[in-house]
Amino acid sequence: MMPRVRITLRGPFIVISMQIITIGSGSDAGTPRIGCKCAGCRSRKPKDNRLRAALALKKKDEHFIIDIGPDFRQQVMRYGIDYNNIEASVMTHAHNDHCIGLWERSALTMKQVRALTVYSHPQILDYYFNQNSSFYYLKSSGFVVPKEREPNKKIKTKNFSFHTFEVPHTPSFLGPTLGLSFENKKFVYIVEASKITEAMKEEINGTHTLFMNGTFLKENLFSHISIKNSIPILNNLDVKKIYFIGLNHTEGTQEQVEKYLKPYGYKLAYDGMKIKV
Ligand SMILES: [Zn+2]
Ligand SMILES: [Zn+2]
Which terminus of the chain has a smaller tally of CB atoms within 10 A, N or C? Predict the structure, then answer.
């Protein structure tokens, strides 16, 4: 009998970095808002012009989209994202500003492009794909492929690996809100949350880059923890880089908020911001 030989391959392996493109950094109705004359809306500086919060992660030529809001079409065009190179996407929660752009995958375009895989919580998928006839049509025609995320279990697509965790934000009838953690805490995304729970602290601790809800600067409002109230909690956690995202038009300009964040070493995301992790 031949002796069994175990061959272990060890050696240099290539780690492919991931590019994070902020394709939207605003809150539910963007900035400037229709008819509003506040300082944020009056600003003509490019960084104060915010589409609804969403990200495009890029690895090789493939994209992974986080949230598909009403600006999805414009975001795809502006940042040169090829529909056929969208490997997968996630809807973080059932508020319209994170999901309603799915209709851009409608029948007229879908004959030429590949189906969109959308991961989310079963309750969110049910709300959109079974209770709304337009989205039911997208699902039943195979233009969009909804996939239930398995709680706290690693999901692997061709180029990306991630898991989801639940964060408090939406009323229970809409289902929970999902936080996302990519590639062993390389990147954690919490777009909206009313507080930072103990379980969330565990997810955040040890992260390289965190994107955190930054809708309101000082006051907790409408199920959003403010930047001011997040800071002392985040200061006690081990995170290399922190960016706030989702600034509401009422909360000032990019320049003003960046000035507020500077002493802490944190930053505010803006449309078009590209970073590598
Ligand atoms: Zn305004
Ligand atoms: Zn929301």
Answer: N
